[in-house]
Design goal:
Blueprint lengths: L4 H11 L3 E4 L4 H14 L3 E5 L5 H14 L5 E8 L2 H10 L3 E4 L6 H17 L3 E6 L8 H4 L7 H11 L3 E4 L16 H10 L4 E3 L7 H10 L3 E4 L1 H15 L6 E4 L4 E4 L4 H22 L7
Helix pairs in contact: 2-3, 2-11, 10-11
The chain binds zinc ion.
The site of zinc ion has 5 residues, from loops.
Amino acid sequence: MLVSMAEILKDAKKRNYGVAAPNIFNKETIEAAYEAADELKSPVILDFAGLKDQEIITEISKYYERKYPHVVAALNLDHGGSYEEIVAAIRAGFTSVMIDRSKLPYKQNVEEVKEIVKIAHHVGVSVEAELGHVGMGYEYESTRDSGLTKPEEAINYIEKTGVDCLAVAVGTSHGTYSGEPHLEFELLEKLNSMIDIPLVLHGGSGTGDENLKKAVKIGIQKVNLFTDLSNAGLGVLKDYLMIDRTKMEHDRELGEFGNKNANLIETFLKGTEGYKQALKHYMTLFESNGKC
Ligand SMILES: [Zn+2]
């Protein structure tokens, strides 16, 4: 069942667990996310970024919704940029949208998010926004501190915008970290004690199991993941593609030597297998398994 993300995260907050939000981008990754959720009886949030292919992604998700009617999932636009992109996602059938105005001045951030909340709530779509700024891993050491979320500002922001959940900056970063990740657990504790709505952690990859487990225990209900899932997929794929010379044959038609056990169909399957295993690892780490 595709539901709004707010519904999934409210339960996670109530029962103190985290929900994995893998970036999905095609049929294979959506299928892997549904299979992982089905096998572990876990909710899942499908995060999709971009304007292109929104309708295709919605249709594929709806197919798996019919195939796994008991799986509780949300389809969320990740880092919604332009107004056009966000409205198109709502029209396409996304059950949640994230609007990222974290680089804008505070007042403008509030104004733009508020407008999207008004539109989205009219059609039962939940909204995630970001306050403070989660930067990129390659510039981690130089940008981390300036982007941290300020608790008092966050309370004012939630009141003014009416968002359903808030992405906070507590020391994580997108992509691969340059240097060691260090999280502000005290800040997260403070945010959790002052804020009623669910909190989101962007940049889960490379943050480390211990850090993520602790963050979920303290008060994070959604963890965004891509790089780790992608790397896990690539790892399985690399093993598969390692040339086994005993299986090399001369292709008479092409006049070439090739690995007879490798083909493109298998390649996609292998990449997805690694992605799925890593996703299941995180679902278990966040204790969302067995929750639905
Ligand atoms: Zn993000």
